[in-house]
C-alpha cells in the first residue's frame, strides 16, 4: 500500500469516526459538584466513545436567564441542562423538558440499572409533574446551622440542637471579633431570589410572614416582613463581615473554612465542603433556627439534570443523565474524592452506606432536614403555591429578582428597611395584577 493511499484511508476513517460521534452540549451551574462531574466525565466518554460532551458553566443567575430563554423559544442550544427545584415542574407544564419516565421507556438499556425507586421521595416529588419525573437530582439539600465549636468552647458558649434566631444573634454578637479576623456570623447578602432571598425567606417564614396569600396578593409590607428583615439587617451589619451584598455561598464558605466566621446558616451541601477545609475538625451542626413560628425554617432544594424538548441528541443525553446520577457514579466520586464529597440528598442507598455515615457525621441531620422540610406547609397562613424559600408560580422569578435588589439596598444601608419593603410590595403587586391574579 502506498503512503498516499494509507493517508487517504486514515483520513477517511477519521472523518467517518468524527461523523459517528454525537455531541451532547451541557449547560450547568458552576458549583463544586458539577465541576466534579465534569472532571469524572472522561470515564463516561471512554465507556461511550461515540458520545462527546461539551460543557458550559455559568453562575446561577446567568444560567437561569439563558436557559429560560433557550428552552422557552425552542432554541436547541443545549441537550442537557441543570434545572432547579423551582423551575422543573413549571418547565414540564410548558412542555419545555422531556419526561424522564417516558425517556426511560424509550431507552430501556440506559435506564436498566438506574433504580429510580432509590431516589429520596421528598426530592423526587419536587421534580415531578402530574405523576411523572421530569428531571433527576445530582444533589439535593436543606438548610441548617453550621458553627465553629472551638470558637464556641473558647467563649464558654453551647449551641442547642434547635436554636432560635434570637439565640443565634446573641451568640454571633458575643463571638464577633473583627479586630482578630473573626466575624460572629456570615449570611448571604448578594441579591438574587435564590441568593439573599433564600435565607431571608426562611427568616420571614419563622417570623410569621409569607410572600403571597392564597389568592396571590403580596404580603411583603406586613409586620412580619418588617420584623424579619429588620432583624436580619441588624444582625449582618452589627456582627457580620463588611460588604454583605457581595457575599454569596462561595464567599461564606471561604470564611467558615478559614475559621473567620463563627456561625453560618445556609445549605446543608456546605457540610461536605467544610469537612475537608482547614476548619473541618472544628465544624459542628445544628438545625436551622426558628423564630416565633417553628416551621418554614429549613429550605428544600435540588439541582437536577433535565433534557430540553428541543434537543436533537436525547438518547445520548439520557445515557449521560443516568450515568451521572447513578449509584455507580456515587461510588466513583467516593473512590476519587472520598465519601464525604459524594453528592448528598439524592439516594436512600447513600444514607445506608456505613462508609458515608462515618465520613459524613452530618449525614443523618441532613437527611432529617430534607425529609422534614414541607413545601406545602412552610408558612403560618396558607399561601398560593408550594415552596419554602420560593413560591412555585411563574411570576416569582421576576418578582424575587427585583425584590432581592431592594433588600440588598437595605442590607447595605442605602435605604431603610421600610423603604425596601414598600418598593418591594409595589413591585410584587404590579406584577401579580398584570398576571391577572386579581
Number of domains: 2
CATH architecture of the largest domain: 3-Layer(aba) Sandwich
Oligomer: single chain
Order of helices and strands: HEHEHEHHHHEEEEHHHHHEHEEHHHHHH
Q: Can you offer a commentary on this structure?
A:
This protein folds into two domains: 3-141 and 301-359, Periplasmic binding protein-like II (D-Maltodextrin-Binding Protein, domain 2, 3-Layer(aba) Sandwich), CATH 3.40.190; 143-298 and 378-434, 3-Layer(aba) Sandwich (D-Maltodextrin-Binding Protein, domain 2), CATH 3.40.190. Helix content is 47%, strand content 12%. It has helices at residues 3-20, 32-47, 60-73, 85-93, 100-106, 108-111, 121-126, 149-154, 165-175, 197-206, 223-239, 249-257, 270-275, 314-324, 327-337, 354-359, 363-372, 396-411, 417-434; strands spanning 22-29, 51-58, 80-84, 128-129, 132-133, 136-141, 143-148, 263-267, 283-287, 301-306. The strands form three sheets. The chain has a five-stranded mixed sheet with strand order 2-1-3-10-6. It has a three-stranded antiparallel sheet with strand order 8-7-9. A two-stranded antiparallel ribbon has the order 4-5. Helix 2 (32-47) links the parallel strand 1 and strand 2. Helix 10 crosses helix 11 and helix 18 packs antiparallel against helix 19 (417-434). The longest helix is centred in the first third of the chain and has 18 residues, at 3-20. Residues 5-19 have low confidence and may be disordered.
Amino acid at each position: 500500500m502506498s503512503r498516499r493511499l494509507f493517508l487517504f484511508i486514515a483520513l477517511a476513517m477519521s472523518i467517518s469516526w468524527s461523523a459517528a460521534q454525537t455531541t451532547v452540549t451541557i449547560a450547568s451551574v458552576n458549583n463544586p459538584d458539577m465541576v466534579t462531574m465534569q472532571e469524572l466525565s472522561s470515564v463516561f466518554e471512554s465507556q461511550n466513545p461515540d458520545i462527546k460532551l461539551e460543557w458550559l458553566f455559568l453562575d446561577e443567575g446567568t444560567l437561569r436567564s439563558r436557559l429560560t430563554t433557550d428552552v422557552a423559544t425552542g432554541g436547541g442550544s443545549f441537550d442537557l441542562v441543570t434545572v432547579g427545584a423551582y423551575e422543573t415542574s413549571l418547565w414540564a407544564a410548558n412542555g419545555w423538558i422531556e419526561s424522564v419516565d417516558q425517556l426511560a421507556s424509550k431507552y430501556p438499556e440506559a435506564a436498566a440499572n438506574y433504580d429510580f425507586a432509590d431516589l429520596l421521595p421528598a426530592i423526587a416529588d419536587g421534580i415531578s409533574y402530574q405523576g411523572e419525573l421530569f428531571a433527576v437530582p445530582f444533589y439535593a439539600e436543606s438548610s441548617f446551622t453550621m458553627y465553629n465549636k472551638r470558637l464556641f468552647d473558647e467563649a464558654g458558649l453551647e449551641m442547642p440542637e434547635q436554636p432560635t434566631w434570637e439565640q443565634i444573634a446573641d451568640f454571633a454578637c458575643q463571638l464577633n471579633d473583627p479586630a482578630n479576623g473573626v466575624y460572629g456570623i456570615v449570611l448571604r447578602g448578594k441579591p438574587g431570589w435564590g441568593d439573599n432571598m433564600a435565607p431571608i425567606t426562611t427568616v420571614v417564614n419563622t417570623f410569621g410572614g409569607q410572600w403571597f396569600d392564597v389568592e396571590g396578593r403580596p404580603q411583603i409590607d406586613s409586620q412580619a416582613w418588617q420584623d424579619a428583615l429588620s432583624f436580619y439587617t441588624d444582625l449582618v451589619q452589627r456582627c457580620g463581615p463588611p460588604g454583605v451584598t457581595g457575599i454569596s455561598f462561595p464567599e461564606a464558605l471561604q470564611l467558615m473554612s478559614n475559621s473567620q466566621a463563627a456561625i453560618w446558616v445556609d445549605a446543608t451541601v456546605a457540610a461536605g465542603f467544610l469537612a475537608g477545609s482547614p476548619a473541618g475538625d472544628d465544624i459542628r451542626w445544628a438545625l436551622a433556627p426558628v423564630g416565633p413560628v417553628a416551621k418554614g425554617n429549613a429550605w428544600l432544594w435540588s439541582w437536577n439534570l433535565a433534557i430540553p424538548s428541543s434537543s436533537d441528541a436525547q438518547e445520548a443525553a439520557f445515557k449521560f443523565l443516568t450515568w451521572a446520577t447513578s449509584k455507580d457514579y456515587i461510588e466513583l466520586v467516593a473512590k476519587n474524592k472520598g465519601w464525604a464529597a459524594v453528592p448528598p440528598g439524592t439516594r436512600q442507598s447513600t444514607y445506608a452506606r456505613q462508609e458515608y455515615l462515618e465520613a459524613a457525621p452530618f449525614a443523618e441531620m441532613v437527611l432529617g432536614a430534607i425529609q422534614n422540610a414541607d413545601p406545602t406547609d412552610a408558612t403560618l397562613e396558607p399561601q398560593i403555591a408550594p415552596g419554602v424559600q420560593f413560591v412555585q408560580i411563574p411570576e416569582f422569578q421576576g418578582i424575587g429578582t427585583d425584590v432581592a435588589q431592594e433588600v440588598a439596598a437595605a442590607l447595605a444601608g442605602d435605604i431603610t428597611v421600610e423603604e425596601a419593603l414598600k418598593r418591594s410590595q409595589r413591585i410584587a403587586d404590579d406584577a401579580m395584577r398584570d398576571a391577572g391574579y386579581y
